[in-house]
């Protein structure tokens, strides 16, 4: 690890090189800096400054003079309340404050209306202000690993968002306004405390990735979703390619799941499924299907239609037999069948052999 005194020397040298070369980017990350060298004030032409993974507890006021910055990474320092004058950096399009000790969002953040990416994951936020909805140019918002229990309705004003990560919080419900985020392609809600899903999520028809999984360490203090049923409107999300539903309390799957014909990955391990619907056989683009640790006693013949599958995990169920149609899955390279009650395997097509089975 770099010692603070060595980090200062390295930083001074990098700043000198940047001034000499006229570079517009400066990387001072991972130098164990406790203070920022004042020589940085000369670099008024900087557009990108990376101060990630240092030991900064305060920021010098002159940092607010670097008004050409469009990228500023302050992640993983020891900041508790970045100062208001950082709001002078109104050209910023990317701001990373993740991994600090923030408990509230500073008011000046609302001045940064050109932001397209805001990273706040791994902080200690318990609530979000309504004015967050003013940052209408945001396309990426990462709030993973905070302590949020509710979301403001104004989150639905961020209609340019394509990526939203709310995983690892304490959410028990979601605002109806989330249904306005119709440009979202990735929505992460894993490891919260959700028991039901609002109908508004069915409007997010551009989604390609949706993660609703719970924690696989449910006896710990971590949050965990506990969905018991899936709504029929899930079948509206026909652009989905990846769907995570693992570690919930699901006992059945809706017929509308068969509409998701672009799915390539479906994760359902550690639920309480006893049967699978025949409609699962419509998901012919699937390459990965994970059904480990459920309560399945039989499989539908329609699984044999999933001929693109390369990974099929069925371990930890109560299967006594497999359908003959599984012999059609000639692209399988990973087949997990352990911890069942199987006594025989179905015949496979000529020249086909079952892959390694775990």
TrEMBL record:
UniProt keywords, alphabetically: Leucine-rich repeat, Repeat
PROSITE patterns given in the database record: LRR (PS51450)
Disease resistance R13L4/SHOC-2-like LRR domain residues: 109-217, 256-337
UniProt xrefs under SMART domains: LRR_BAC, LRR_SD22, LRR_TYP
Keyword Ribonucleoprotein: no
Gene3D superfamilies: Ribonuclease Inhibitor
PANTHER family for this protein: PTHR48051, RAS SUPPRESSOR PROTEIN 1
This protein's name: Leucine-rich repeat domain-containing protein
Organism expressing this protein natively: Streptosporangium fragile
């Amino acid at each position: 690890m770099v010692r603070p005194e060595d980090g200062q020397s390295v930083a001074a040298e990098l700043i000198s090189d940047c001034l000499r070369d006229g570079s517009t980017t400066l990387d001072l990350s991972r130098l164990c800096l406790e203070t920022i060298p004042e020589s940085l004030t000369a670099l008024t032409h900087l557009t990108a400054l990376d101060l990630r993974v240092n030991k900064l507890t305060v920021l010098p006021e002159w940092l607010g003079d670097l008004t050409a910055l469009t990228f500023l990474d302050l992640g993983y320092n020891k900041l508790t309340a970045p100062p208001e004058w950082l709001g002078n950096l109104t050209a910023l399009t990317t701001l990373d404050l993740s991994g600090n000790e923030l408990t509230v969002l500073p008011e000046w953040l609302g001045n940064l209306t050109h932001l397209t990416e805001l990273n706040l994951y791994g902080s200690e936020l318990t609530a979000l202000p309504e004015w967050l909805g003013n940052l209408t140019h945001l396309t990426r918002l990462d709030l993973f690993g905070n302590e949020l229990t509710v979301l403001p309705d104004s989150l639905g004003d961020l209609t340019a968002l394509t990526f939203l990560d709310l995983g690892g919080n304490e959410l028990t419900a979601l605002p109806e306004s989330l249904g306005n985020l119709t440009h979202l392609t990735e929505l992460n809600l894993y490891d919260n405390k959700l028991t039901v899903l609002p109908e508004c999520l069915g409007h997010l028809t551009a989604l390609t990735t949706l993660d609703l999984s719970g924690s696989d360490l449910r006896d710990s203090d971590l949050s965990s979703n506990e969905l018991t049923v899936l709504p029929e409107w899930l079948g509206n999300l026909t652009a989905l390619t990846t769907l995570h539903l693992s570690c919930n309390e699901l006992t059945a799957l809706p017929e509308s799941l068969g509409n998701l014909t672009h799915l390539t990955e479906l994760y359902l391990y550690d639920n309480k499924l006893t049967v699978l619907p025949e409609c699962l056989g419509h998901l012919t683009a699937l390459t990965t299907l994970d059904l480990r640790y459920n309560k399945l006693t039989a499989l539908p013949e329609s699984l044999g239609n999933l001929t693109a599958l390369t990974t099929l995990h069925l371990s930890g169920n109560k299967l006594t037999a497999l359908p003959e149609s599984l012999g059609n899955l000639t692209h399988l390279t990973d087949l997990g069948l352990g911890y069942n009650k199987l006594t025989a395997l179905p015949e496979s097509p000529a020249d086909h052999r079952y892959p390694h089975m775990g």
